[in-house]
Amino acid sequence: MSLWKNVVWAALAAIVTAVVSASCGSTAPRNLCVDRNVRCESPLTCDPSDGQCKCGGRGGVNCPMGFVCDPVANTCQSTRCARVDCSESFGTSCDVLDGKCKCGGTGGAVCATNEQCNPLTKTCALAVDCRARACARNEACEQSTGRCLCGGAACGAGQSCSLSSTGAGTCAASACKGVSCTGTNACDPADGLCKCNGVVCQSGEACACPQGADGGQCDVSARACRAGTACLGVTCGNGTTCDPVDGQCKCGGPGGPTCAANQICTLGPPAKCQGGAQCTLPDGGARTCPSGTSCDPEDGVCKCGGRGGFVCAPAGGADGGSMEPAEVCVQNPNQQACRRPCDIRSPDCPTGTYCYFDSSASSPVAYCAAPTEMRVEGNGCNSATACFATTPAPRSIHCNGLALGQTGLCRAYCDVAAGTAGCLQVPVAQRCMQITGAPVGFGYCQP
Predict the structure, then answer these.
(1) Which residue from 97, 122, 247, 361 has the highest number of Cβ atoms inside 10 Å of its Cβ?
(2) 295, 273 contact by CB (below 8 A)
(3) pLDDT tens-digit series, residues 172-231
(4) pTM score, two decimals?
(5) How far from each other are the two terminal CA atoms of the chain, in whole angstroms?
(6) Long-range pairs for 291-294: beta carbons < 8 A, 24 or more residues apart
(7) What confidence tens digit (pLDDT) does each residue in 300-326 have?
(8) Domain segments of the chain: what residues?
């Protein structure tokens, strides 16, 4: 009986072992590489989990087009950057996906022709070198855009940058608008004056090349104000005077209009040519021109400078705005310019400009202009716009006694009708004096 029990227990144990063995065998992972008899080309290895040839075998990756498997690193390496050199594109590196030099490398941006890569931020920015960019006077180059700005704004056509008493830049109408320079003088947009290599020539001088220059031709930087020789042997009549700049007989002297053969010079003021077919009225009288202008015999139009001059703007408003006064003609030996008139007692000049009375003009007049210097009361001055005060408020000052070949002194403007009340009485007492040649009431403060 005992023997029989042992036989039964042995049989049961064998059955249990077989069942357990069968159960464990059903959960063993399959090797699809063996089941499917997969063969991979080196350096790829079959992944037994899915039977695919991969870079790195089990758990590896399928290399996309343009990539090859590196058997040492067991990863895919791009072939698109094999022959790409990004050294000429500063800060860029090759994008392994398309082989292009990009700012930031793979996934970065391709900089435009006017941009360069900033390797620190990995972004493209305008390739601007303000050190190699020349801006107009009082303007500054903005590094981010390369634009020349005046106080943060870009001045438009016909405008220039003017500095206020605090040093702030403001775009204002160009000082050279309506200015015609004689000879080889050029208008300086900073102050609207005609200059020879940066210098205003005095009466009897011309902007000329050094002696011995070939045919009078030379670089602009070599020109200087020199005693004019163009008038040697020239005789002028009918009230005209030879202009040393071009040797032409001018009505009113240097800078004045050139009269035609059938015209006469009327010294005025202002000096102007009269007569001629175009400048003769039907009744035989000569055309009379306003605001210091004279008749151009070529077309009969009143111009600043007469023949070949400028037509000053008439009175009127822009787009229905406030009425603007008609411009006046300001003439001196070096230039003719159309300016906005003003009253020194109650100026209403545009921003950046101030009211000045110019006693050196052929027809003395008050007009709006930007200050050309910052000379204070008591200082010497050689131009009508050289005097300017900042206290107690920014304002123009009169250059008293200014004349051709003669300097003046900066004196404060005042209203003659106000008497001493129109002048500051500290640190010294002052009285208001009428400006010679100016409209009644235009005065200056005399200690």
Answers:
(1) 361
(2) yes
(3) 777 787 777 877 788 887 777 888 888 888 766 778 888 766 556 788 888 888 776 677
(4) 0.44
(5) 153
(6) 291/326, 291/327, 291/328, 291/329, 291/341, 291/365, 292/328, 292/329, 292/330, 292/331, 292/361, 292/362, 292/363, 292/365, 293/329, 294/251, 294/257, 294/270
(7) 788 888 877 888 888 775 444 456 788
(8) 92-126, 259-338, 340-446
